Amino acid sequence: MGGNNQGSETAPPTRQTNAACRQPRRRSATNAIPATTITPTVRRPTEKPANAPALRGVAIDPGHGGQNVGALGLDGSKEKDVDLQVAKRLEKQLKMQLGIPVYLSRTGDYTVTLRQRLATADHPDVDAFLILHAQAAFTPAAHGVTLFIRPKEESAAGTPTEVGGGESMRLAQSLAASLRAAGFTVDGIWPAPLLPLGRGDLPTVLVEMGYLTNPADQSLLTDPAGDERMAEALFNGLKSFADHAKPQS
To answer: Of 2, 77, 212, 236, which sees the most CB atoms within 10 A?
Structure first.
C-alpha cells in the first residue's frame, strides 16, 4: 500500500512485495460479497454507563478459513491456521486477565462471509475489534508486523474524522508500542480500504502479524511459543489502549 504514513510511525522501506498483500484481496476473497457491495458498518456503542470499564468486550476476526487458506508459508503452513491460533490465545488472555467477553468470527476451520466477520463486532459491549492476518511476499526479505486502519472514522451522526484523529489510530499506536516492546519489528500504521474493516467509528485494527515467506517470521508464527508471544503483545496493546481511554462523547 502506497501513500504517506500516518501519525508518528515510520514508513516501511520499499519492497518487491506482492502487491496483493497490501490490498484487501485476501480479505474480500474470503467471502462471497463482491467489492461493489455496500460496506457494512461497525460503530462504537452509543450508550455506555459512566462507571463501565473502558474495555467491556473485544471482537476478534481470525482471517480466512475453510477452503480459503490465505498465504502459504515456506514449509506449506497455512495462514488460516496461524490466524486462528493467535486469536484463540488472545481470547484466553483477555478472558483470564480481564474477565471480559471475547467474540470470535470463527472458532474452527470453516468459511466465514464478510458480513459474518463484521457482525462479530456488532455486540453492544464490544469496544475494540482486531482482524488478524499474515502476509506473503515475492522476496523472503520482507518481514515484520504491519497495522492497517480505516482511512477515516465515521460517527453515527455521519461526522467524519480523518485518519490520525480517531480511536482506531490510538488503538493501533498502542498495539505498535506493545509489539515493539516485545521485540517485534513494526513496519508502521497504514490506511486501508474500508471493505475488510467496515465503516463507522468502532476502534478497529487489521494486524498483519508477519510474512510466512520470511524464515524468521514463519518460524515464530508457526511455533506455539511464538503465537503466545504475539498474543501477549496484542493483549498488552489492548490493555494499554483501555488504560488510557478517553471518555466517550
So the answer is: 212
The answer to whether the beta carbons of residues 3 and 163 sit under 8 Å apart is no
144 to each of 42, 140, 170, 188, how far by Cα in Å? 28, 11, 20, 9
Of 53, 61, 167, the C-alpha closest to 100 is 53
pLDDT-based confidence at 31, cuts 50/70/90? very low
| Grid coordinates given for 57 | 468486550
Q: For the chain, which residues make up each domain, given as ranges?
A: 19-31+54-243
Q: What is the pLDDT of residues 40-72, one digit of tens each?
A: 555 555 566 667 788 999 999 999 999 999 999
Q: What is the pLDDT of residues 183-224, one digit of tens each?
A: 999 999 999 876 678 778 899 999 999 999 999 999 999 999
Does the domain at 19-31+54-243 match CATH 3.40.50.1110? Answer given as no
H or E element at residue 26: helix 25-29
- Going by the DSSP 8-state scheme, the letter that residue 78 receives in this structure is B
What is the arrangement of strands in the sheet containing 145-149, beginning at the earlier edge strand? 102-104, 58-62, 128-135, 204-211, 145-149, 186-191
- pTM for this prediction: 0.80
